[in-house]
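Standup notes, structure subgroup. Blocker cleared on the manganese (II) ion input:
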Amino acid sequence: MKSATPQDIAQVLGDATAVTILCHVRPDPDTIGSGLALALGLSRRGVDVEVSFPGAETLPRSLTALAGADLVVPAGEVVGHPVVVSVDAATLGRLGDLVCRLLLEKKKIVIDHHVSNTGFGEYNLIDPAADCTSILILEILDALGTDIDSDIATCVYAGLITDTGSFKWARPESLRIGARLLDAGVDGAAWSRALLDSHPVAWLSLVSRVLGGARFDAAACGGHGVIYAVVSLDMLGPVGWADIESIIDVLRVAEEAEVAAVFKETAPSKWAVSLRAKDKIDLVPLAGAHGGGGHRRAAGYSDSGTAQDVIDRFLRSL
Ligand code: MN
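Run returned:
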């Protein structure tokens, strides 16, 4: 893998006239915040920019309120500019059907903080010591001499607060950056509420059913204990996919369990599996064994079959 510094990437982007930015499937605030912060910075330099993500899902309502959201185009309408930047995607698979766009004759830039990222670009800025990808984007924008106004700062902040769980596991540098972003005009209280503490009323009864069906296996993971729950398509009702992403954060509070897993049915018999660990288990090899990836304490993968098939495969792999 060829590594690049933020300055290297700023140089490539500084020379570009048209850039395509790709976010990962089922986009979260870090991938979209990263994509939009970079898009805003580049478009102000006169660069022609498009941002996209793969899959049938639409942008979650909380993220459509970010500045620059109008630069997002549906995956089917991506032009594919000469410079392509992947943000916060740990694998090519996370870019889904947009992968072909990245593999064409383009300058490929990969910016990410997942330790499992193998560096599938020509220029790879992969920093597992960064709490989120959006602060890597901030470093690139700083290297470009971009004015970090409240719109760009808010996009970076969106990734920072969500990937650090409201700064719960933030590194000191992230707190310093958070202060800088608030000084730049971010409405921290409003964005925390919108991105972390806001769900429809129907979400409460869904969570109650999901948690009521949770199973705890004390013997799993060498006796460290695993708790897991299933969110099947028929349980969703009016609740959208983005609202179920946070259920893992409720489940993982179980103090007897080192590992928490949520099995989310994304299409009939297709599952996205979210994993969280406390401090004894490294989830990267576990998710990797199922074709996924992520961080030591937060990872995921995809699987298919019945809920029981997917759960059995997971428990056997522990
Ligand atoms: Mn991230």
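Discussed briefly. The radius of gyration is 19 Å.
Next: hand off to the docking folks.
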